[in-house]
Write a structure and sequence with these properties.
This is Winged helix-turn-helix transcriptional regulator. This protein is an alpha/beta fold. It is built from five helices and nine strands, in the order βαβββαβββαααββ. The longest helix has 17 residues, at about 10-25.
Length: about 200
């Protein structure tokens, strides 16, 4: 996996340089460090993850040099916490069934793929995952996650599920990690923890 580390702080740049050298030498991943104060950003790798160390910017879209990376998973960190913040991504790739749920960065990590979700989507995914394959009814999900009663014509929960499936698919993962159990609700499908080629997005 390729990490593009960017910063607009000279002290932070100096502080993180030894860390990047160590990770490059001791892990199979590749890292590149660039200053946002440079006029042009020309990374020597094609990044899979953007790591942002900034005291001023809250998201890549706020900086013109990062406009082309707004679709990448992004980790906001500092030199003091970068090791802990990136650790969930550097999981053992030999265990294809390992799922890391990273609430701080709003992401799930599976098979060296990062899927960024909204806060609500992450809570839904985690709740289903923790049920170990047991079907969860829509009223239960609605009450536990959205904190309101489920109405007969309420499609809000279905839209969240559809968005999660779409993001899984876009990351090259099986969209049917979340199954629709007819007449019962949804369940997490532990049997499909494997890569899946993207296919046309269908309705929930």
């Amino acid at each position: 996996m390729n990490f593009l580390v960017v910063t607009d702080d000279e002290q932070w740049q100096q502080a993180v340089t030894p860390w990047i050298a160590s990770k490059t030498e001791n892990t199979p991943h590749r890292f590149a460090l660039h200053s946002l104060k440079e006029q042009h950003l020309k990374p020597q790798l094609t990044p899979d993850v953007l790591v942002m160390l900034s005291r001023h910017f809250k998201k890549p879209a706020e900086h013109q040099q990062l406009a082309c990376y707004t679709q990448l998973p992004c980790i906001f960190t500092s030199p003091e916490s970068i090791d802990a913040d990136i650790a969930p991504i550097l999981v053992d790739e030999s265990d294809s069934s390992e799922i890391v749920i990273d609430p701080k960065n709003g992401a799930i990590i599976l098979q060296n793929r990062i899927v960024q979700l909204t806060d609500t989507e992450l809570k839904i995914f985690q709740y289903l995952y923790e049920q170990q394959g047991q079907a969860v009814s829509k009223p239960e999900l609605q009450q536990q996650i959205l904190q309101r009663d489920f109405g007969q014509y309420d499609r809000n929960l279905d839209m969240h599920i559809a968005n999660i499936r779409k993001k899984l698919q876009q990351a090259g993962l099986a969209r049917n990690l979340i199954l629709t159990v007819r007449g019962r609700g949804y369940s997490f499908n532990h049997e499909h923890l494997q890569f899946a080629q993207p296919d046309p997005v269908s309705n929930v």
